[in-house]
Design goal:
Radius of gyration: 40 Å
Distance between the termini: 182 Å
CATH topology of the largest domain: Immunoglobulin-like
Mean pLDDT: 82
Number of domains: 4
Strand content: 35-45%
CATH class of the largest domain: Mainly Beta
Structural class: mainly beta
Number of helices: 2
Low-confidence stretches: 1-23, 417-442, 468-472
């Protein structure tokens, strides 16, 4: 082979290698979707492809499909519009562009997901949607549909968490997501979806949003109810959260409640801030344990929780217990009294409530005696504070916040009491022990009479001692 031919061959080979290197090193484009790659069923979406050089042609491919979308464009970006996303549009997409005589590499894949094809799952926090700063919480996503996997999303975070569904004996399919650690510097808003393995890009409707509250250590507010702890169906229920700290927002949470806690933003006045949470007409779903939190709009951290308030809903069990008193409804102060609550129906717990009191009712476990369930509430000894009108209720352990109809009212009268107080002040519940000193009107009268008797005896004794001396002096005169 002549040197000239060898040189030409080497030159041609080097040109070919250079052209191939240019083909291989042409940068791949960027692909994305607007408004996002997770799109509700029937909504429009636009897929964009952007190269690094001014391009003449863009191609869009869908994996598993022979269809190819082509756009001639003398720019460095092109868009492909889908006016209404359907099942057929879901899948993984790639794009590439042509510049001069060279094609780029394929872009990274874009997965287009359609939501809203199946009914939504439920999302709840265990044990509560309120978490202390630095703590962990478990989110439970569940559905009666036999989804193969569940997906958890967090607002403001494009990353997804996926877990295989587990079937429970109840027939429910669930997945448990551990979220940790919780910090007050972010907003913790979550949603979850379910899908089947054979169509991974077709998801259910989104669950209702669940916001986790991160509680801190600032002063806790107070939670009050306008009626008392026991409500009847049909009553209107309003819970008031208040504080002498100038909080400008409040949150109300219910133990075990998966829904988003209610939040109100108010303008504090005279150093006192408060919010009224109207829960509308009472039904069985309102029974439970409530707490409230205070916060400031410039911080994502919440206060320590208020003391809990239990809302009990009466009238949801057909049973109506009976209430009796021993030795009788009229007793003297200092006596021992027992209020007996009984039921013919099986029950787990009895509650005794004194009308007009704001505190929770007394609870006692039911005991079976003479083919009846009963509980004995003892007051030893009674004082004037125990006087008032009582009712008793029954409840089951499975639904501790749902009570029976109330018993007939029983009025307890405590006689001979000097420490009588006005009805508006008489708000104490029965206690098992009396106050250390129980001065009644009868005791004070008896003490006064005894004092007068002692005084009279003293006068007589004084006179008796001085009588002989006076007789002797009179004789001398």
């Amino acid at each position: 082979m002549t040197p000239t031919l060898t040189a030409l061959l080497c030159l041609g080979l080097s040109v070919g290698l250079k052209t191939e290197m240019q083909w291989e090193t042409l940068p791949k484009p960027t692909i994305w979707a607007e408004p996002g790659s997770v799109t509700p069923w029937g909504s429009p979406v636009t897929i964009w492809c952007q190269g690094t050089l001014k391009s003449q042609e863009f191609h869009l491919y869908k994996e598993g499909s022979a269809t190819r979308w082509v756009i001639l464009q003398l720019e460095n970006a092109a868009n492909f519009s889908i006016p209404s996303v359907q099942w057929k549009h879901t899948g993984r997409y790639h794009c590439k562009y042509k510049s001069s005589t060279h094609w780029s590499e394929h872009s990274d894949p874009l997965e287009l997901v359609m939501t809203g094809f199946y009914s939504k799952p439920s999302l709840s926090a265990l044990p509560s949607p309120v978490v202390t700063s630095g703590g962990n919480v478990t989110l439970q996503c569940g559905s009666g549909l036999g989804f193969d996997r569940f997906i958890l999303t967090k607002e403001g975070d494009h990353r997804l968490s996926q877990l295989d569904a587990q079937r429970y004996p109840s027939g429910q399919f669930q997945a448990l997501f551990l979220v940790n650690p919780m910090t007050p510097s972010h907003r913790w808003m979550f949603r979850c979806y379910g899908y089947f393995r054979n169509r991974p890009q077709v998801w259910s409707h989104s669950s209702d949003p669940l916001e986790l509250l991160v509680s801190g250590v600032s002063q806790k507010p107070s939670l009050l109810t306008q009626w008392g702890p026991i409500m009847a169906p049909g009553q209107s229920l309003t819970l008031q959260c208040r504080s002498d700290v100038s909080y400008d927002r409040f949150a109300l949470s219910k133990e075990g409640q998966p829904d988003l806690p209610q939040i109100l933003v108010l303008q504090p006045q005279a150093g006192l801030s408060q919010a009224n949470f109207s829960l509308d007409t009472v039904n069985s779903s309102h029974g439970g344990r409530y707490r409230c939190y205070g916060g400031h709009s410039l911080s994502s951290e919440w206060s320590a929780p208020s003391d809990p308030v239990d809302i009990l809903v009466a009238g949801w069990l057909p049973d109506r217990p009976s209430l009796s008193v021993q030795p009788g409804p009229t007793v003297a102060s200092g006596e021992n009294v027992t209020l007996l609550c009984q039921s013919q129906s099986p029950t787990d717990t009895f509650l005794l409530y004194k009308e007009g009191t704001a505190g929770p009712p007394l609870r006692l476990r039911s005991e079976l005696r003479a083919q009846q369930c009963q509980a004995e509430f003892s007051m030893r000894p009674v004082t004037s504070a125990h006087g008032g009108t009582y009712r008793c209720y029954s409840s089951q352990n499975t639904t501790p916040y749902l009570l029976s109809h109330p018993s007939e009212p029983l009025e307890l009268l405590v006689s001979g009491a000097a420490d009588t107080i006005s009805p508006s002040q008489n708000k104490s519940a029965p206690k098992s022990a009396s106050h250390p000193q129980d001065y009644t009107a009868g005791n004070l009268i008896r003490m006064g009479v005894a004092g007068l008797v002692l005084l009279a005896l003293g006068v007589l004794l004084f006179q008796a001692r001085n009588s002989p001396r006076r007789t002797h002096e009179a004789a001398r005169r």
